[in-house]
Amino acid sequence: AQSVTQLDSQVPVFEEAPVELRCNYSSSVSVYLFWYVQYPNQGLQLLLKYLSGSTLVKGINGFEAEFNKSQTSFHLRKPSVHISDTAEYFCAVSEWGTGNQFYFGTGTSLTVIP
Amino acid sequence: NAGVTQTPKFRILKIGQSMTLQCTQDMNHNYMYWYRQDPGMGLKLIYYSVGAGITDKGEVPNGYNVSRSTTEDFPLRLELAAPSQTSVYFCASSYIQGANEKLFFGSGTQLSVL
Fold first, then answer.
1. Are strands A108-113 and A10-14 parallel, antiparallel or unpaired?
2. CA nearest to B43 within chain A
3. Which of A22, A76, B34, B63 could form a disulfide with B46 if both were Cys (CB 3.0 to 4.6 A apart)?
């Protein structure tokens, strides 16, 4: 069965500092990888996705993520965070050939401190 | 642009009561999903639908029912509410079949069963 692990449940970081949110997955087949962001009292929005090709993926709001197949990781990074980045971040995985089953991690709460 | 609309936003139920969470999308998406989000647990798939008249169980279907009579609507029914169903419920949709397709989420329904 597919599983997604986000080891850090909460990440506090000062404004303008860099941040990395970690995501690891387990799968025996090829996967598609996603990061979603959830602002307070809102639904999830797609931040970025990896389908194939370049392992470095750039998303909205200055975020980027790198797919590492050997380490089965898809960590999210931003070089300089802003107060408005405070939100919950979810890593998600779907497997090739399994239709539309998405598996979500437990989420990482990012708090940007002024 | 309405996107995915969920109603109600908040609801309190007594044990044993029933209710229907409404979800409608105006993007002509074939695929629709219901997730529940519990603290520290991420999102779990309850049911999904690949088109009008076709539904299937996800990871946590017990205690819920769905129907898909039209492309636009995908209501979720709780027949006998239990405290374990206290959660935030999200409806989502996607256009084409394929695990690379992103999900569009509604803003959620916060349900408390007391």
1. parallel
2. A104
3. B34
In this predicted model, what pLDDT tens digit does every residue of A2-49 receive, in sequence order? Answer: 689 998 999 999 999 999 999 999 877 778 899 999 998 788 899 999
Cβ of A7 under 8 Å from any chain B Cβ?
Answer: no
* DSSP calls for B46-79: EEEEEETTEEEE-S--TTEEE--SSSSB--EEES
Q: Which residues of chain A lie closer than 8 angstroms to B95, CB-CB?
A: none
What whole-number distance in Å separates Cα of residue B103 and Cα of residue A89? 15
Q: What is the CATH number of the domain that holds A103?
A: 2.60.40.10
CB B112 within 8 A of CB B24: no
More confident residue, A102 or A66: A66
Partner residues linked to B84 by β-bridges: none
Ordered domains of chain B (ranges, CATH):
4-98 (2.60.40.10)
Residue B83 C-alpha, separation from nearest chain A C-alpha, in angstroms: 21
Strands A44-50 and A56-58, bridge-based pairing: unpaired
